[in-house]
Amino acid sequence: MPDASPAPYRIEGATGAWEVVIGLEVHAQITSNAKLFSGASTAFGAEPNANVSLVDAAMPGMLPVPNRECIRQAVRTGMAIDAQINRWSRFDRKNYFYADLPQGYQISQLYHPIVGEGSLAIQTDAGDKVIGIERIHVEQDAGKLMHDQHPTRSYVDLNRSGVALMEIVSRPDMRSPAEAGAYLRKLRAILRYVGSCDGNMEEGSMRADVNVSVRKPGDPFGTRTETKNVNSVRFVMQAIEGEARRQIDVLEAGGSIVQETRLFDPDKGETRSMRSKEDAHDYRYFPDPDLLPLELDDLFLEECRASLPELPDVKATRYRDVLGLAPGNAEVILADVANARWFETLLAEAAARQGKPEPEVAKAASNWFVSDLFGALNRLGRDIEDSPVSAGQGAELLALVADGTLSGTLAKQVFEIMLETGDDPAKIVEDRGLKQTSDTGAIEAEIAKVMAANADKVADYRGGKDKLFGFFVGQTMKAMGGKANPAVVNDLLKKALAG
């Protein structure tokens, strides 16, 4: 049987097809109220130089003290990708001089990182693929130069100086922009589930350095370039494609690729040279003499592991095998930790209100969550964390449908009123008289009127045109103002039309 898997990603050049080799170095700001080696705030959006301690400004005699929470979050992240946790690690000084680096060096971990090898499974068009992760090390961020505040001067903002970062370094295992995008989305989701980084790429708390090289399929790796500080999944994918095409053009014209650092221009979809790429010896790394090595004991590691939540892959298995959710619904729910938390609350409260186990209410809950709630949020331009309807109110609405108080049509009407007013569904049903009726006498009376007004269609139905049944259901529901119990209507109509 022929292989139906899609062809691997290739870029066609004048000399034939080229393969792209991609690795990502993701800088993720660690969730913490203080910086890596000082107690200064990490709040986003503060006035320039408002969140700077004497340590961050490198005042003489100031000694760094590691923030335990930053170390804890890095370890938890390593555990979430099933990586090796190094019980002994060490900080090094990376020496270079720049105006936004007041110490004249960055404290990082080159030789002995806190987290070793791990991996991340992603979904591709060809199936699952495992991307190797080489290491996660902890380091401090530099400050920021501001070039647009004065016509002839650049200002320095040290608010980010000393902010704790995890640098998550992948293996060069990705072979297409789509794979890199899938990896980055999956990694961001895990960081947000764990709570070690908020993943907000727009605010700079997660950004990627993109390593790209090209080669003819089967050849050794080519020379790579590094495109720095790309701050969205879309831009990462564009940067890979643009840089790969640039390298192919250079090589096919007889040139060679220079190992260098580049910047991505999102307006042009192109990269441009920033500086030649330094090697480790250029930074004169050496162990930081002000910091003792980190030594992690069993109790600390056990506490870190016990604090981990249910992670996306485990949750996906439970959604499929235990709750029986449709794959499309599960994908929407799992896409972001905020979605998953909201849905889990909805599911638990719906099950409690209906007195049923969660698997019995999961299908209806997920359908309402993905179709009705997300449809409304998209229409309103809101996200789940800004929903005008709470998970408890959603569970109450589902319970009113389950016990027959509301039909599906009435439930949609009630939901629209909930969005507008914020009122609970039971109150809306009571105040507006929207309760579904199962009064057989009232329904039979309306059925009789509908049949009398459509005697020709009754004759056609009895003559074998079974599809007309839907017409009679619709007319009866319309006559009842949408409040009739559909199951009762169907049952009574079948009897009346059979007569």
Quick tags:
Arc Repressor Mutant, subunit A, 499 residues, 9-stranded mixed β-sheet, 3-stranded antiparallel β-sheet, 15 helices
Written description of the protein model:
This protein is of the alpha+beta class. The chain has three domains: 16-304, no CATH class; 310-432, no CATH class; 440-498, Arc Repressor Mutant, subunit A. The protein contains 15 helices and 16 strands. Strands 1, 2, 6, 7, 10, 11, 12, 13 and 14 form a nine-stranded mixed beta sheet that branches. A hairpin with a 2-residue loop joins strand 6 and strand 7 (127-140). Helix 7 (337-354) crosses helix 9. The longest helix has 23 residues, at 358-380. It is elongated. The relative contact order is 0.09. It holds the Pfam family GatB_N. This is Aspartyl/glutamyl-tRNA(Asn/Gln) amidotransferase subunit B. Keywords: ATP-binding, Ligase, Nucleotide-binding, Protein biosynthesis, Transferase. Heterotrimer of A, B and C subunits.
Explain the layout of strands and helices.
Elements: E1 11-13, E2 16-29, H1 68-80, E3 88-89, E4 92-95, E5 105-108, E6 118-124, E7 127-140, E8 144-146, E9 155-157, E10 164-170, H2 177-194, E11 206-215, E12 225-230, H3 233-252, E13 260-265, E14 270-276, E15 286-287, E16 294-295, H4 298-306, H5 312-321, H6 327-334, H7 337-354, H8 358-380, H9 391-402, H10 408-421, H11 425-432, H12 440-453, H13 455-462, H14 469-479, H15 486-498
Parallel strand pairs: 12-13
Antiparallel strand pairs: 1-2, 2-10, 2-11, 3-16, 4-5, 4-15, 6-7, 7-10, 8-9, 11-12, 13-14
Helix pairs in contact: 1-4, 2-3, 5-6, 7-8, 7-9, 9-10, 12-14, 12-15, 14-15
